[in-house]
Write a structure and sequence with these properties.
OB fold (Dihydrolipoamide Acetyltransferase, E2P), binds adenosine-5'-triphosphate, 2 domains, Rossmann fold, disordered N terminus, elongated, alpha+beta
C-alpha cells in the first residue's frame, strides 16, 4: 500500500480553496475471495459534515474508508464524490486525502519537508510548496517546529503533522483511520477536539473511522454504525443514543439495560408498555402489541429509598461505587439486574437497601422495534 498520506494530485487549481464535497455510496459491496467485507452499503455524507464509521473489529469500516480513498476498489455498486462517479478512478484521481493510523511520516525528513512533500511531488515550485506547508502547519498549531524531525515530536504533534500533510493539497474530502489510537487517553480527548474544531472551521467533509463509541459521539455530525459488513443504523449521535434501531446499536452506543416488557395498548403515536408493575408511555416507533425489548440508559433509572412511588418496581441495591461526579449502582429487581448511574452530590445508597425503581420517561428509554 502507498503509505503517503495524500492520495491527491496537485491540479492547476490546487492553490485555490476547494468546496467541501459530498460522498455517496450506492449499494457498494467489497469482496475478498469468499469474504464479503462490505455488503451492499448505501449512505450519503453531506458536504462539510464529519461522519464516523463506527463498529466492532472486522465489521468493514476500514474497507469502507479505503474505498472512498480509492485504495480498494468496489466489487459492486457506485461511489460518488461531489456528485462525480469515482467508482473506477484511481486514488490519485479522487481529490481525497487520508490520515493513517500510523501517521506514516517520513522519518528522515523535517516536519516542513514532510508537509511540503506532496505539493513538491505534484509539481509545485519549492517556494509555493513551502508556503502551502507553512500555512497548514500554522493551522494545526505547529509553527516553530518546522525544522524538527518526526522523532523529536510528541505523539500528538506527530499526529498534527499527519493532518497538515493531508490538508496541504486541500482535498475535497479528508479521511481519518483511527487517528487517536496511538495516543494516550488524556491526549486523545484533546486531539479529537482539535480535529473537530479544524473540520468545522475549514468546513471540511470528513469520514472518520473508530471503534470507540465515546469518540464517535463526541466528534460526529452523523454516525454510521456498522455490524457484519452492513449498516446497522445511521443517525446523529443523539438519535443513535436515544432511538437505537436494534439491540446491537443499543448495546454498542453507550451503556444500556435491555429489559423485556409488553406493549399492552397503542394510543396514537404512543405505546403503553408494561414492565412488571411499571407502566410507561413511549413513542411506539412501529411496534405492535405484544412482547418488546426496551433499552434503558443507566441515568434514566431513578432509585428512591422511601418506597412511596405509586408507579415503581421494588428492588435492592447490591453494589454502589462512588466515582466523584457520579455514583454507579447494581440493583437487583424483578425486571432484571440493573446498571444505574446517578449524578450529583449525594451520599451513596448502601448495599442491601430496598429501593423503588422508576424511569425517566422523557429520554433515555427506547423501544426496540421487532425485538
Ligand atoms: N485484504 C484483505 N483480504 C481478505 N480479507 C480482508 C482484507 N481486508 C479486510 N478483510 C476482511 O474484511 C472484513 C472487514 O475488514 P475491515 O478491516 O474493513 O474491518 P474493520 O471494521 O475496519 O476492523 P478493525 O477495526 O479491526 O480494523 C474482515 O473480516 C477482514 O478480515
Amino acid at each position: 500500500m502507498n503509505q503517503m498520506t495524500s492520495v491527491t494530485p496537485l491540479g492547476p487549481s490546487a492553490m485555490l480553496k476547494k468546496q467541501a464535497a459530498s460522498v455517496e455510496f450506492r449499494n457498494v459491496t467489497k469482496r475478498y475471495g469468499s469474504v464479503t467485507a462490505v455488503d451492499s452499503v448505501s449512505f450519503v455524507i453531506e458536504p462539510g459534515q464529519l461522519v464516523t464509521l463506527l463498529g466492532p473489529s472486522g465489521c468493514g469500516k476500514t474497507t469502507t474508508l479505503r474505498m472512498i480513498a480509492g485504495l480498494e476498489m468496489a466489487s459492486a455498486g457506485q461511489i460518488l464524490i461531489g456528485g462525480r462517479d469515482v467508482t473506477n478512478l484511481s486514488a490519485a484521481d479522487r481529490d481525497v486525502s487520508m490520515v493513517f493510523q500510523s501517521y506514516a511520516l517520513f522519518p528522515h525528513m523535517s516536519v516542513l519537508e514532510n508537509v511540503a512533500y506532496g505539493p513538491t511531488v505534484q509539481g509545485a515550485s519549492k517556494k509555493d510548496a513551502v508556503a502551502m506547508a507553512m500555512e497548514k502547519l500554522s493551522l494545526v498549531g505547529l509553527t516553530g517546529l518546522e525544522k524538527r524531525a518526526p522523532s523529536e515530536l510528541s505523539g500528538g504533534q506527530q499526529q498534527r503533522v499527519a493532518v497538515a500533510r493531508a490538508l496541504v493539497l486541500e482535498p475535497q474530502v479528508l479521511l481519518f483511520d483511527e487517528p487517536l489510537s496511538n495516543l494516550d487517553a488524556k491526549l486523545r480527548r484533546r486531539v479529537r477536539e482539535d480535529i473537530r474544531e479544524l473540520q468545522q472551521n475549514l468546513n471540511l467533509t470528513v469520514a472518520y473511522v473508530t471503534h470507540d463509541q465515546e469518540e464517535a459521539l463526541a466528534v460526529s455530525d452523523r454516525i454510521i454504525v456498522m455490524s457484519n459488513a452492513r449498516i446497522a443504523q445511521t443517525g446523529t449521535p443523539r438519535e443513535l443514543y436515544e432511538e437505537p434501531a436494534d439491540l446491537f446499536v443499543a448495546d454498542f452506543i453507550g451503556d444500556a439495560n435491555i429489559l423485556t416488557g409488553a406493549v399492552v395498548d397503542l394510543a396514537g403515536p404512543q405505546a403503553h408498555v408494561q414492565i412488571d408493575r411499571l407502566r410507561i408511555e413511549l413513542p411506539h416507533r412501529g411496534v405492535m402489541k405484544g412482547p418488546v425489548k426496551l433499552a434503558v440508559r443507566p441515568d434514566a433509572i431513578f432509585l428512591d429509598e422511601t418506597m412511596a412511588q405509586p408507579n415503581a418496581v421494588s428492588g435492592t441495591v447490591r453494589k454502589a461505587s462512588y466515582l466523584g461526579t457520579q455514583i454507579e449502582y447494581e440493583v437487583e429487581s424483578p425486571i432484571g439486574e440493573l446498571f444505574v448511574v446517578q449524578y450529583g452530590r449525594k451520599e451513596p445508597i448502601a448495599p442491601g437497601t430496598p429501593v423503588a425503581i422508576s424511569f425517566a420517561l422523557q429520554r433515555g428509554v427506547a423501544i426496540i422495534p421487532g425485538a
